Amino acid sequence: MNFKFPTKIFVAAVFAVSAQFSAQETPKESPKYDFVEAFKPFFYPQTGTETRSASGQPGHAYWQNSADYKLDISLDEKKNELTGSAEITYTNNSPDQLSFLWLQLDQNLFAKDSRGNSVVPLSGSRNGAKGEVFEGGYKIKSVTYDGKPVKYTVTDTRMQIDLAQHLAAKGGKAKIKVEYSFVSPKYGSDRMGIEETKNGNIYTIAQWYPRMCVYDDVMGWNTLPYLGASEFYLEYGDITANITVPSNHYVVASGELLNSKDVYSKEENDRWDKARNSDKTVMIRTESDIKKNQASGTKTWKFKISQTRDFAWASSAAFVLDAAKINLPSGKKSIAISAYPAESAGDKAWGRSTEYTKASIEHYSKKWYEYTYPAATNVAGNEGGMEYPGIVFCHMDSKGEDLWGVTDHEFGHNWFPMIVGSNERLFAWMDEGFNTFINELSTEAFNKGEYYQKKNIAQMGAFLTSDNIEPIMVGPDNMKERNIGTLAYYKPGMGLGILRESVLGPEKFDKAFRTYIERWAFKHPTPWDFFHTMENVSGEELNWFWRGWFINKWKVDQAIKTVKYVNGDFKNGAQVTVENLGQLPMPTTVQLKFKDGTTDMVKLPVEVWKRNNEWTFKVNSTKEISEVKLDPNGEIPDVNSKNNTWSSAQAAPVEKINPKDFVGTFSNKQVPVKIVLTEKDGQLFAQATGQQAFPLEYLGDNKFSFEMAQIEIVFSKDKKSFNIAQGGTDVKFTKE
Ligand SMILES: [Zn+2]
């Protein structure tokens, strides 16, 4: 799923989505650094088992059940109704006999009395159907087991099937068939739905057929209901789907189209052949072709996908289609496809979707693990962005940098959770966070960094470790909805970035991360399998990092305590004392600047903090020091940058200001929010109406910034107004 972070959104929206950080928190003394708490052993809740090795790899007796599906579905465009059947072949590879089975009925989220609807607050939610009144949820016509009717019970989004005879352990096979129908919501929890366009509706269909719950060695049956925020945990298998739609529709779906000759014209098939061999995007169906197909009746499109955990599809008479070849490291080919309405066409928008898709899949394949599906399709719908195996739905209005970002993110999900099948319902950070991390490298690589902006990690510390947010290791249904963006995406993503750049180094990190992907491809890892693998492959102790960043919300705060010349003379060198104040230790980098303009760098490994709260080291220099600075490249999320620099008296970087001179309430008649500037402990904060506050950094010349959102505030000389600038928008606010 996509979560838009505030890079180039209007300032009011930025304040809204970034509400996590609060200057209004009751000031409480942060717990002091305790090196025993940070590093103590017995971090792992269990040692190795037969199914999960202590080394982080699947154990010698690892097992996993599988589910193959034969799906038939037809779309009634007048009623927005889908009617079909699912034939499931379920294989029980576990060592346990099963006396009942659990299935997921995710469409029941849209039934009026669903638990998911019950937890939507008055202020609204991204989840559910945005208040649409309709007969949502499944109508189940029949359920059979091995061809015979069977007892079943539906509870919210789950169905339990009771078996007259146990399903045998270690290879027992069950055949389940469910006949069902449902009316599609127009807005389906931002993951499916119906978008109206000038040439017809676009149906983006997902969570549409009954799917097996996962039975595993960790929880047994995983039956947490679908409440909206938490995503999916699914078994692997092979899926075929026959999709019957109006004849003038074009269907794109997970996997490979099996009957291209039946559904495309000769000319269109020739264009497909050309696209399969072209690195440049080839038009399959142009805007001017849309009017040509006026056929009535229905057509059936047949698809197949192997080793998949899900299947999604989209259908519309309005699709423009284009495609290009994807080159994979092994020499195999796949194909990048885009399906979008005429409204979204053009080089600034979806005209580049196939280029983005191809680049994204090629990058991830080369860097981490080769893409396994025969096609990768980007569909324009009404979703902010949602991922499925081999197909993703992105918003039809996305363009430029946004469209690159969402396309790259949704296809990044093909690695997490499509290849590495972790439990998204419990551990959103293992797919969204890992994906956010790989997106950063992919964006840096794309088209010589066309859309890349390096993040300043140092300025994010206070925001990411605020006392107001939950720890990462909490399910999305167990955290405030407004914190999901931070806790499932940004903080774990940045955590892996810190681990790569500042703790392990890229070479060690990449080797360990690649090993994790290879070990758990098409399997079900837990957080502990990930942690064990990273430590075993890199050879480094990382329990302090998992403990502080993922399990707790410990803060990083390192400080320079003193800088003293030996015997008072700089010719003798200097003694520098650094302190670790926050609960989460980190490796420490210290930069020294000398008055003659030269610099020196000292690196302290994290082991310094294993038995010390402060550490003094000697600098063997003979020159006068002008500045000593921690983390000069801004790579550590330190919550308090004020104690990171020591400077000789003359080296003050900007003129001194009194932040109290800038406080007040500022407004602009055209904008529905006011911005209030307040001062606390010498720090200036900005806060928009109804939202929480951001810290501002002073840059000199009456200019302040909040770099995370790339906001700049420039005051007039009399301090009675300021201009707030972000992403090319510049708005003037005046003091009331
Ligand atoms: Zn996502």
TrEMBL record:
Protein transport listed as a keyword: no
Gene3D superfamilies: Neutral Protease Domain 2
Keyword Nucleus appears in the UniProt entry: no
Pfam families to which the protein is assigned, alphabetical: Peptidase_M1
Record's keyword terms, sorted: Signal
Source superkingdom: Bacteria
Residues making up the signal peptide according to the UniProt record: 1-23
Alphabetical list of InterPro entries matching this protein: Peptidase_M1_dom, Peptidase_M4/M1_CTD_sf
Stretches assigned to the Peptidase M1 membrane alanine aminopeptidase domain: 369-549
Protein name per Swiss-Prot or TrEMBL: M1 family peptidase
Organism: Chryseobacterium caseinilyticum
Taxonomic lineage from the root: Bacteria, Pseudomonadati, Bacteroidota, Flavobacteriia, Flavobacteriales
